Amino acid sequence: MMRRIGPIMIIEGANNSKVPFSRSLYIDSKDKVLIDTGADPAELRALDEEYGVELVVNTHYHPDHTLHNHLFRDTEKWINPLEFETIQSIEGIAKGNGVYQEWGPEGVEALRKHMPKEWVQNLGEISGTYQYDVEYSFSGVKVNFLHTPGHTKGYTSPYFSELGVVYVGDFDMTSFGPWYFGTDGDIDEFIASSKVLIELDAETYITGHQKGVFGRQEFIEAMDKYIGIIDQRDELIEKYVRQGLNFEELTNIGIFYPKKMLDVLILKTWERSGIRKHLQRLGFSVHGSEIQLVNK
Ligand SMILES: [Zn+2]
Hints:
The chain is α/β, with parallel strands linked by helices. 37% of the residues lie in helices and 20% in strands.
């Protein structure tokens, strides 16, 4: 199923592009550019056969957005300049995701063992970077790779100013809420970037997961609700701290992820790392398992 907005083709991922899949964009111009590769592999192959892909651009390094980079073996692939370094090693990825912070070198070794080979290949094939805030023209289709950090440090939102279209990817407006749980994610940056996005001169916002295409007003309203989830998380976490829960107890409840999913090491890692960010924002510090109010 393909939707088109002018020269931009939207290619869906499986299951309505829900994580671990995502939506890809294809710029139908002589330059044949594909943005992110989380879409359905059969559709991506068909696209490659029918139209060709000469450049793959990744908005950031997460596996759901680089998922099928390996389908485009000899194609040039670019990522943002801040994450090119991150993807050069498993250590870099482990550090960016909170694995090192939460579990130390043992966690890094566990990730090295369990990270699917394809994911490593997807990142290993990335050959270069684009620059932020420079207008690229792909056979006349102009796009600006806006630096919109928060989800990750280097997160990029491709903005087609002449078309009034922006691919907001992981500002995905889902009921799960904002994701900034890696050590390279940041709540304040996430909020600041959300403001940058709604202030753009754009009529069409395309998200990376689930619903997909939003009109301007609809997106502004959805963003308000979406960012509001951050405050709800603050309130919930503060309530538990006031009740006297320690860090171990707090990270076993299932604030972000369902409790039963916290057996999955990477989800547990993000749960812990995310809760640390909220605690810091609320003025608490964590020492081992103990949570203390910081005197300001
Ligand atoms: Zn992501």
